[in-house]
Structures are given as C-alpha cells and as structure tokens.
Amino acid sequence: MRYPSLTHALAAVCVLSLAACSVPAGGQSTDPVSTGGRIKLAMLQPPRTGLSPFSDDAFKLSRWSTAETLINLDENGDAQPALATAWARTSARTWEFTVRPGVTFHDGTPLTAQVAANTLTRATQATPKPRILDGVELTAKAEGDKVVVTTGEPDPLVPQRLSSPQLSILAESAYRPDGTVNPVGAGSGPFKLTRVNGTTTATLDRYDGYWGEKAKAGGIDVAFVPDGTARAAAIRSGEAHIAEAVPVSQAALLQKETISEVPMPRTNTLYLNTKTGPFKDPAVRAAARTAIDPAQLVTGVYEGRADIARGLLGPALAWAAEGRRPLAERPAATDAKGVSITLATYSDRAELPEVASVLQQQLQAAGFAVKLVVREYAHIEDDALAGEFDAFILSRATVLDSGDPVAYMQADFTCDGSFNLAKLCDEDVDRAVKKAAATDAGAARRAAIMEAEAAILRTDAAIPMLHERVIQGDATTVVDSAKDPRERILITTDTRLK
C-alpha cells in the first residue's frame, strides 16, 4: 500500500477535529444525553472496499461496535453468545443457532433467523468470499427462530467461524442489487454508522434502541490516518482521544499514561524455502536458526516493546505457553561458511526493513553470504509465494478470523497450504495439523494445536523470532477503551470520556 504523505495524514486528523466541532475542549458533548462525550478516533487504514463486511473493512465495523456477529469469542477463543443465544450440533455437518429476540437494526427492521441466513448466504456468494469461508462449503437457512448451517465436510469450528467480523449480520437494506454492501444505518450494535466520507472520516452516533446495555458515549468521530507519526501527534495535541497502532518509534514520545501495550497473536517469523536452494538441507536451516538472536531484535528494533518468541504462538494465547511441547531430535547445524542466500521482506510494516538488516548481519556473522531484497508488500508477495527467495521475513497473524490457529497452520505449513512461503511438505506436520483441525473446540483441540506447533518447529521451516504488541494511544480523559489482542474490539458500551 502506498501511504499518503505526512501532510495529508495530518490534514486527516484536522478533519477529525472538524467532525467533532460540537465537542468543547474538555471533551464533553454539548448534548445533555451524551454524558460520556463523543470519542475522536484516529485509525490506521482507510476503508479499502467501502466498508464492505465481506472484506478486512469488517474489522472497522467491529471495532466501532456498529456491526455484530452471531457468536463472540472469549479469551481462549471459545464461543460465547452474541446475536445467537444458543447453538447445537445436530449432526456431523449441521448446526442450529437460536437467534436473539428483540434485536432491531439501525434502520428499524427486526433481526430474524431469515435475515441472519440472508447475510450468511450472501457471504458465500461474495466475490471474493470472506477469508473465513475460504475452502469451506456452507449453506444457511431459517427454520423458525433458528438458523440452520450445513457444511460440506464435518467442521467442529462452525461457531468460531460465525464470530468473524466478516460474517457480521446486517439488515437486508445493506445489500444492493449490484452486489455491493453498504453498512451505513444497517448494523445492530450500540453505535449507528451514520456517515462515511470516502477514505477520510466516518461518523457514528449512539443507538438508543440497542438490545443490550446502552453506550455511555454519545458517538464516535473517526479519522483515517495512515501515517503513524501523525496518529501519535494527534494524541499529544488532543486532536484524538484514541489512536490505534502507534509505531514503536513514536511510543517513547508519548506520556507513559497515554499508551498501552497488548500482546498480539502476531509473530515475526523467518520462513525458509525448503523446496529449492540452500535451505532444502535441514542442516543449513538449523544453521540459520542457531545464528539468529531474537533478543537483539526485541531490544534494538522494537525498543523492548515485543516479546521473544518461544514458539509460533505467543503470549496473546496464554494456553499456548502452558501447553508447549519439547522439541527433541532437531537436525544439527552445519557450517554455513560461503552459503549464499537471498533474504527478503516488505516495507509496509515500519520495523521489518530494520529487522531484515539486523538478520542480515547475524547470518553473515555465521558465514552466510546474504543478499537483501525489500519492496512494498504488493510488489513482493507473488515472488515470495512462488519461492523466489531463500528466506522471507513475515509479520504473520497466527490467529485468523475464527480465533483459532489451525487455519494459519494449514495455510502456511501443510503440503496444500495456500500461503506456504516455506514450501513445506512434511507428513508429520500434515498429520498433526489434520488431527487438530478435526478435534472439537476446547482443551483437546488446544492440546492438538500444540502438537502441531511442535511438528512444524522441528522442521526449521519457520523460525519464530518475536511476538509483536499493539501499542494504543489513549488520552487521559478516556475511560474503558478495549485492549483487544485480536483487534476486533476497540470502543465498547463502557468506553467514554471523563
């Protein structure tokens, strides 16, 4: 993605200020009903698809608490009620979800099982389909107050899939004859999306007809500010109450009480090409593993605002550390002197080029001859997937839309994986991932996931280096903004200004 200049980004923050011009300097709304004020929010990425819920824009709708799903997830990734109050698996391929009564959308129409089934059906017909349905055959129909979901193959993760923001349930008025989706005024959450100004701003007002606890804030005024320096400056100047994704380089410039760090299910990983080139040899992969010092990356590049990786899954998943398996029988490292490799990464995430530079030095110190390639992600992804590089540094979300790591493991490390940068095809890995995918959600599935992690790590196809943290800026006037590792929630019914 090519980002606007700092000047344009700062202008966007000013637009945010103008959007909230009815809010006095103290941050309190002049509306006597809105005792929690209007929250000014600076967000990282502008909408890419007009806020279509079938795209990554869905996470904005979720973070603003304007669109809701049938299911929510708890900290462990287990399913919890949302727009569905109960669910049951009635056969190997069929699930029934009971729709919550008394819910109205922001356009005044009621939530019914038919409306929910309509959303799910449209999602299956979208082009491209939501990520959570990639490779999944799913049908939905209404029977009374229940949505009956049937999958082509037995799928123990259906409730978790329905928690994805990309399957947010919208009023039927959101779906246009031309196939586009307009979420303005079509959600069911505590905040009503009332206006979107292209890729610049969005406005939300409290929805007093909400089925649950009413929001304490009167509304949200959003500005899209791709430049991280500008987002941090907006917190310092008071132009924003909340700024998401503050860069590591800017965190030290903010008052300590205005920043928070939350471990993310995102791992900075070195993928090694196991199909062609020097890393086809497990002993050479082991040499790369032993050459890398993650602590230097954490302290030097991330200024201590990251966690050294002990595995693929990090501290955002507390159960992962508790269930980690020992890694016995790993190949011994060979002498890497004179081994030439090409190391690549992308520039869209600010820290990665510096990570690549440090890794280049570490690998060279171990004897490797390292050529470094850095491009924008849009210009390097195809080559990376084609195996054009010997090694690739990726900042990878390990818990995808279902809140479950199995989809990530399938995509990245199995023989048929759609995002297999390492070109790994290992029988033990495929067997372990397949077992995890077939296990019911809960403790048994988590144990199977850790077995799969161990199988992957034993190959040295991927060397996890560090787990990133999300740094969020909150003005001292903000109360109870969400600190969500999955970045699904940001402003809740409790979020307000003092």
From TrEMBL:
PROSITE patterns: PROKAR_LIPOPROTEIN. GO terms for cellular component: ATP-binding cassette (ABC) transporter complex; periplasmic space. GO terms for biological process: peptide transport. The keyword Signal applies. Residues 1-25 form the signal peptide. Coiled coil: none annotated. SUPFAM superfamilies: Periplasmic binding protein-like II. GO terms for molecular function: peptide transmembrane transporter activity. Residues 80-418 form the Solute-binding protein family domain. This is Peptide/nickel transport system substrate-binding protein.
